[in-house]
Amino acid sequence: MEGYNIGIKVQGKRLVGRTQDTLNIAANTKSSITKEDKGNSKVTVTGHTITLKMAGIVEVKDDGTTAVLSNEEIMDLALKTGPDAIIPVTYDRGSDIPYGGDGIIMGYSEDSSAEGSATYSLDIQISGEFAKQVNNG
């Protein structure tokens, strides 16, 4: 995805953030103190919370051209529930092996300026594993 790091696939459409992509990985930890630790806390990483933000969302067509989505289309994505709310997410920095997993849209934001232009963004949280997408074929 040249020029785009984060992409989602919804209803056969490849959507990317045109103006901003953000990836955050935060460790989930568990603290413990045992007699052997002599009162010092030990922290263990038990997993990760992975969140992404896409802003200025556009559809990338098969020929590489882009089409702007309306705010209604983006809001409809954010309002999905149940199994329809789970979407495939890809994080790709160009020539690197992409990472992917299932995501859930956790938020929708709309920012506008005095000039009348607006930016729409989606906040996505990974549900389950987020791993390298190695092609074994």
Question: Could you characterize the architecture of this molecule?
Answer:
By secondary structure, the chain is mainly beta. It contains one helix and seven strands. It has one helix spanning 71-78; strands at 6-10, 13-32, 42-60, 66-68, 86-91, 99-112, 118-132. The protein has a six-stranded antiparallel barrel with strand order 1-2-3-7-6-5. The longest helix is centred in the middle third of the chain and has 8 residues, at 71-78. The chain is elongated, with a radius of gyration of 18 Å. The chain starts with 5 loop residues before the first strand and ends in a 5-residue tail after the last strand.
Write the layout of secondary structure elements.
Elements: E1 6-10, E2 13-32, E3 42-60, E4 66-68, H1 71-78, E5 86-91, E6 99-112, E7 118-132
Antiparallel strand pairs: 1-2, 1-5, 2-3, 3-4, 3-7, 5-6, 6-7
Mean pLDDT: 85
Overall geometric form = elongated
- Which structural class matches the secondary elements? mainly beta
Oligomeric state: single chain
Taking all Cα atoms into account, the compactness measure Rg is 18 Å
Q: What is the number of helices?
A: 1
Which segments are poorly predicted (pLDDT under 50) over 5 or more consecutive residues?
none
Order of helices and strands: EEEEHEEE
Percent of residues in beta strands: over 45%
Strand order of the largest sheet: 1-2-3-7-6-5
Calculate the terminal CA-CA distance, rounded to whole Å.
20 Å
Instruction: Count all strands and give the number.
Output: 7
